[in-house]
Write a structure and sequence with these properties.
Blueprint (H helix, E strand, L loop, with lengths): L10 E3 L10 E3 L6 E3 L6 E4 L6 E3 L5 E4 L12 E4 L7 E3 L1 H6 L6 E3 L8 E7 L4 E6 L8 E6 L3 H4 L15
Parallel strand pairs: 2-4, 3-5, 4-6, 5-7, 6-8, 7-12, 9-10
Antiparallel strand pairs: 1-2, 10-11, 11-12
């Protein structure tokens, strides 16, 4: 699948003033291109299908609510990701699945809660993979141009805390 060929999609919702909440772009179960608002903090929720999620200047949060939002066989691709400002938020998904602990592993995830950060060369793609069920596909996200194992110096995943992100 050519990522560039994906159609633009999703629906924006904006918080009522006064609010510190950020505008949210929610995708569908189709594969689509979802792009943050330039220069504004944004939340992007891809939904199912292998989406292309595009960040821009500002703090972008790429949220995942269920494992089928981004499976290994049809993983989302995040572009223009800035590890200093942007976040990949899996807290809601983990809480729904009653995963209370996430453990970073060096190899592929074997047990529920295992997480692997890998870097594919020469494609220059960082890959986040989490085993979320005993059987079936793992949750996975591809991040273009970011070496996750070098860029993410600390991570916190606590499913009981709504702000837990990578």
């Amino acid at each position: 699948m050519l990522v560039e060929s994906l159609p633009a999609g999703g629906t924006w919702t904006y918080p009522e003033s006064p609010s510190t909440a950020r505008p949210t772009l929610r995708g569908t179960d189709a594969s689509e291109r979802l792009e943050a608002i330039r220069g504004q903090d944004s939340v992007i929720i891809g939904g199912g299908g292998g989406d292309q999620l595009v960040g821009h200047v500002g703090r972008n949060s790429f949220k995942y609510e269920k494992p089928t939002d981004s499976l290994e066989s049809d993983a989302d691709r995040i572009t223009n990701f800035n590890p200093k400002d942007d976040r990949i938020d899996v807290s809601r998904m983990l809480k729904k699945l009653n995963i209370t602990e996430v453990k970073l592993t060096e190899g592929p995830p074997q047990q529920v809660g295992d997480m692997q950060l890998a870097y594919l060369r020469p494609q220059e793609i960082g890959v986040l993979t989490i085993k979320v069920t005993p059987e079936g596909e793992n949750f996975a996200v591809h991040v273009d141009g970011v070496h996750l194992t070098e860029k993410i110096s600390s991570y916190s995943i606590n499913p009981n805390s709504p702000g837990s992100v990578l």
